[in-house]
Here is the input.
Amino acid sequence: MITKSWRTNWERIVPFLEFPPGLRRILYTTNAIESFNARVR
Here is the structure.
């Protein structure tokens, strides 16, 4: 199921992979407080 989702949405996924790892971690976090805590650490 995950593979099908990736293949179906590949054009939307690829741009996120081009961001630097530190920025990707912030973008992937859906919880704003969790994101902030991760950056503070």
Q: What stands out?
A: The chain has four helices and no strands.
